[in-house]
Every structure is written in structure tokens, then in C-alpha cells.
């Protein structure tokens, strides 16, 4: 493995996908956040609290600009994990090219690390959630992601180990079905065991639904871009290939 090439491919794909995510969120997600903040502001005003609208507007401008930078950093962090997983699993992933392999892995990781956890703890805009429960909610969310990710990793390792020791085994689709059912059973159990979100939804449900849909769509675009960019660059640069040093005698 060429370390420099691997880092370049991984970090570049993460930065590009992350920045695009931040820009997409400006169009798709931020309008719903603005609406949620507007509802929250009206509630605070009804309670007699003093709201500095100018300060709030300036803060939102700064926040939206910072979101692009934060999304770029998020892309780097995610791509580091994605690149390591891809490097170790590339030979066993389905697909005729690194691009197709990376897209398949990106779809799996999007499903395991976002969609499944979102079924239990879906994304909510700022107006939903008591600030006093934020750390508790983060622990629940991260714990659910950890169970989903670790169970997938362990099942994948077991599946590949079985393939190694049973090269002539029949019915590989049946083994894939069994692995999928075990994962579904684990996550169903986790879904039932983990406590629900402690905060009640007190804003219009259509705003909540729209926010969750566009959030899932933007994150899905991010994973798709990350997989496509990393796969294309991997095919071109080939960081998995090491150069051979040959010597000739005169």
C-alpha cells in the first residue's frame, strides 16, 4: 500500500464530498432549520423573554458559513474510516471496478451507520429537544450506531471466515440471507431495548417529516459522492499497488 497515495485519495474525496454536503445543506436543510428556529423564537417571545433579532440573524449567518467548513472536516473524518475499511475489504467487495466496489461499500455504510439508527432516533431540527437532555440523547444515538456498526463488522468477518474454510460450500445466497437475518434480529432487539427519545415533538409534524427526509437525502448524496470520488481516484492512482524495484547487472 502506498501510504502517501492512500492518504491523498482518502482525504481529497472526504473534503470534496463534505464541502458539497455543506453546500447542499444550505439549500435543502437550512430553510427547515430557519422555520424551526422561528417557531422556537415565537415561543420564547410569548413567555416574555427578550430576543435580540439582529444578534440572532448574525449568528445564523456565521453558523451557515461555518457549516460548510464543518462539513468538510466531517467528510475528512468519515473518509478516513471509509478508506481504511475499503482498503481492507476491496478484494472481497462485489463489483468490476474500484468505483463500483466503493459505491457498494458506501451504500452499506450509509444503511448501517445512518438509516438504521435513524429508525430509532431520527434527526430533529433545533426546536425539538430539551437542552438539558442533549448529552443523554447523544449517548443513546452513538450507542445505537455502535451496535449497528460493530454487529455488521463482526458478521462480515464471520461470513468471510466461513467462505475461506468452505471454499466449495453450496448455497452462498442462503448464507447471505442468514447473516442478514441475524443482523435484523440484533437491531430489532436493540430497537426494543433502547429507550425512546425523551423529548416530545411540539412543532408541526410536517416540518419534522420534511426535515428528516431532506436530511436523509443530503447524507445519502454525501455517501454516494464519497464512494464515487474515492473509487474513481483509486482506479486512477491505484494506491494498493506497490512499485517493484528491479536491478540490472552490466
In short:
The chain has 250 residues and is mainly alpha-helical.
Computed over alpha carbons, the radius of gyration is 22 Å
- Using DSSP, what is the number of strands? 0
Q: How many independent structural domains? A: 2
The SSE order reads HHHHHHH
**In terms of per-residue confidence, which ranges show pLDDT below 50 for 5 or more consecutive residues?**
244-250
What is the first-to-last residue Cα distance? 31 Å
**Helix/strand structural class:** mainly alpha
Q: The biggest beta sheet, please?
A: none
Mean pLDDT: 87
| H/I helix tally | 7
Q: Tell me roughly what share of residues is in helical segments.
A: over 70%
Envelope shape: globular
Residue share in β-strands: under 5%
Give a description of the structure.
The chain is an all-alpha fold and 250 residues long. The protein has two domains: 1-127 and 203-241, no CATH class; 129-200. Helices cover 76% and strands 0% of the residues. The protein contains seven helices and no strands. The chain has helices at 3-28, 30-46, 53-89, 98-120, 134-165, 172-193, 205-237. Helix 5 (134-165) runs antiparallel to helix 6. The longest helix has 37 residues, at 53-89. The protein is globular. The model is unreliable at 244-250 (pLDDT under 50).
